Amino acid sequence: MRLPKVLLVLLFLLQVCVVHARLEPRHWASALRRRLSPHLSDYFRNRRIHAIQSAYRSTQPAWNGVTPPGSVPDGKPFLPYYVPVGSVAVDDTWRSIVYSPHSWHNVSNPKYAQGTLHSTTTDGAYMTYLFSGTGIQWFGTVGPTHGIADVFLDGKHVGTVDGFAGQTAVQQRRWASAQLALAQHTLRIVNTGRGQGKTMDVDALVVRHAAVKKTEEAVGVNFIQSTGTAATWKLEQRGTTGVSAMQLSVISDTEAIIFDKVEHNPLTVNSHPAWGAVYNLDTDEVRPLNVLSNSFCAGGTFLSNGTLINVGGNPVVTDKTGAADFGDVNGLQAIRFFDPCLDNKCDIFEDPDRLRMASARWYVTVTRLEDGSALIMGGSKKGGWMNNVTVNNPTFEFFPPKNINGYNALPIPSPFLNDTLNANLFPIAFTLPDSTVFIAANRDAMIYNWKTNEETRLPQFPNGVRVTYPMTGTAVLLPMTVANRFTPTVMICGGSTVDDTMPGYEMSSQTPASDQCVRMTLTRAGMAAGWEVDHMPAPRVMPDAVLLPDGKVAIVNGGRTGIAGYGNVKGQIGQSNADNPVFQPVLYDPDMPLGQRFSSDGMPTSQIPRLYHSVATLVPSGEIMIAGSNPNLDVSEVAYQTEYRVEWLSPPYMSMPRPVISTLPATVDYGEEILVQVELPPGTSNVTISLMDLGFVTHAVHMNSRLVELECTCNLPTAGGNTTTLSIRGPSSIYIYPPGYGWLYVLADGIPSAGKRIMVGDGSAPPDDPAATANLLAQTSGPSQKSDQGGQGG
User: Fold this and answer.
1) Does one domain contain both 149 and 47?
2) Which end of the chain is more exposed for a tag (fewer CB within 10 A), N or C?
């Protein structure tokens, strides 16, 4: 039975309101209450997101046997057992596994890995396996007769695993350890006899071997300090992400969120591999997130109320693996919601058929506008590789949906996104202080007026350099300061001159990338003058440009040759389309004269390749978090391997006396004066304030990254003290800094404090137009109503 459209719209509004009442009741919930009847307001006031999530997911048990529509034909249930390329599968029958005598039974059944399994019900029964490698996984069965086992590694108790489950499921990942030192280790698993059942079994082990050089084998805390004569930078390897870090965004003073594609990551959630996680910046611990749809190659932004949205993605990959394997649903039209919390209980919320975009988008860019909403642009209608006229989605849309320019929430065509084929995925975009949006794709750029739907073309990039996927460069909106009157200047670095009409089999992983950086001030005079050309010390494709609180830019990651993606060109390294990683960062100073702005003096050299699907971001402490790299279809242990290790690049200011913010209001409105108490280093002579959006980072695109200097009556401490109260004025308008979260840094003689999160504006939700949403749902179909949307590409 089809529900009336009016009822569908009402259900949509109910879910939106419940979603956004989770942590910030003054935000989405209050905004929608102003539009809804009193009895509905009472309903929304007393609901929370996890109640809706639990109810929704309880009707969609995708894992362990349920086969969603569009899955593989044989309907086999999800099986976590997987052997990454470069790893070794150890069957339970191998003689190198030692079982305690007279207590185990060998069971044969085709549903087990390699058709066999060792099982025991004896208290104290054990198995021991001596292996050499950097990680190990234990696979077995869970079910109503299974109990508790203790796991020991190198003689230390490292886990207690309960195998009890209401239904039997085979080839389940029971326990795993990754990122061990490359050495000989001993795994010992003991049946305790405790729990609701007595059974323990061993189906298989998977041993991870290091696909790294000898100099990369230290996987604990590792410091690499520069020996240069300039100010000293430090590089430290610390922590692992659990899921490959394809997308990264700082969500609080202590946490960052990570999204990946659906694959066999070591981090587990609800008995299946996770493809989303929250990373604790203080403890390096990771918490898995239960993402419903495939977030491969999605974009993201915060909204004005502090909710993070993650949009677009990939369909279910039926040509390589299916929904019955992973349980994910089509992510092409998805909007995933996340409200940061303090209790470690917040999770991703999705309702793919109601909370969705109007059109399918893979490799999509998002930017926040001055009303706190999101402008969503471009992408491909299918997963694949290079964009083309058949799959191109050359349109804009908004979230929340808008009735604007005659399109009433439907996609708005863009001639620019047609003209820039083929290499135009993940377009570069920055919201500008005059309410327009700068957009770059392929070799071209424009200014987009979203209110009037007008495109103004800018001069083409010099020397034939392409800057968007798969000829991926990176970009940064340089600081907008009091001195430059908040005038926007854009810089774009790296990319490739490879012909985007050439078939992949004629391209090469050894084709040199570009070292070009171009810069333009986006005023009438600046645009007329054209692009100013500079050059990095080394060519880079897929670099990341990270804006620092002092206004300088650190460029990290990338390769010297090839292009982005995997599995497409000749001369692949493993599956990678790129080669020759660039291991040394470079610093860009925008205030230096042309030709003197780049320097690697004092910079350390990494030993971890960071190529396709790498990320980097400034974190509140002032360090740069570097993670990811996975030019592979699924988890791989051969070059270039799936990378989970995190590196921390520390600028020289991290080891200097720094300001310390003592008190900071939770919010600052536009033009409002707030008082901030700060302890300054002795002898401070000048204080400035940087307000930063740390951005949403993926595929070298730093969506919403921004630095705005705030005006300050910065009284220095009186004699005998270092503590003072600063009078800081909020941004002058919503155009200079769109409403939403920011991180405030106090700089003493150019040395920044740690950043503190602050809500800019009143924290209210962006404008919501229920009629526009109703039209979107009525005029477009959701992902479950579509077919033939392609598979997972590079």
Assistant:
1) no
2) N
Residues 429 and 557 in one domain: yes
Q: Which of 341-350, 396-405, 513-522, 760-769 has the lowest mean pLDDT?
A: 341-350
Are 373 and 513 contained in the same domain? yes
- Contact predicate 202/195, CB 8 Å: no
pLDDT tens for each residue of 73-123: 444 555 788 899 889 999 999 999 999 999 999 999 999 999 999 999 999
User: Count of CB atoms within 10 A of residue 56's CB?
Assistant: 14
Residues 253-290 as b/e (b if ≥16 CB within 10 A, e otherwise) read ebbbbbbbbbbbbbbbbeebbbbbbbbebeeeebbbbb
Calculate the CA 239 to chain-centre distance. Answer: 17
Closest CA to 429 of 387, 467, 384: 467
pLDDT for res 270: 81
Q: State the sign of the Cα–Cα–Cα–Cα dihedral 244, 245, 250, 254.
A: positive
- Is 788 inside a domain boundary? no
544 shares a domain with 404: yes
User: What DSSP string runs through 386-430?
Assistant: S--TTTB--EEEEES----TT-TTSPEE-HHHHHT-SS-BS-EEE
CB atoms within 10 A of CB 325: 23
The SS3 of residue 114 is: helix
Does residue 777 lie within any of the structural domains?
Answer: no
Beta strand 559-566 with 88-91 is unpaired
> Which amino acid does the sequence have at 148?
I
Tens digit of pLDDT for each residue in 512-567?
999 999 999 999 999 999 999 999 999 999 999 999 999 999 999 999 999 999 99
**Of 325 and 142, more confident:** 142
Q: What is the CATH number of the domain that holds 202?
A: 2.60.120.260
CA distance 698 to 379: 14
Q: Please state, in angstroms and as integers, the Cα–Cα distance from residue 541 to each residue in 22, 269, 578, 702, following that order.
A: 40, 34, 8, 15
Interatomic CA distance for residues 391 and 547, integer angstroms = 34
Domain assignment of residue 176, yes or no: yes
CATH classification of the domain holding 748:
2.60.40.10
Q: How far is CA 444 from the centre of its chain?
A: 26
Which CATH number belongs to the domain containing residue 453 in this structure?
2.130.10.80
CA distances from 507 to 469, 562, 572 (A): 14, 8, 10
Residue 260 is assigned to a structural domain of this protein: yes
User: Last residue of some domain: 612, 638, 655?
Assistant: 655
Structure tokens at 390: 């058949």
Interstrand relation of 116-120 and 200-202 (parallel, antiparallel or unpaired): antiparallel
- Judged against a pLDDT cut of 80, whether residue 65 lies above it is answered with no
| Phi-psi label, residue 388: left if phi above 0, alpha if psi -120 to 50, beta otherwise | beta
Matching residue, tokens 């005023």? 523
Taking the C-alpha atoms of 741, 742, 744 and 750 in order, what is their torsion angle to the nearest 10 degrees? 170
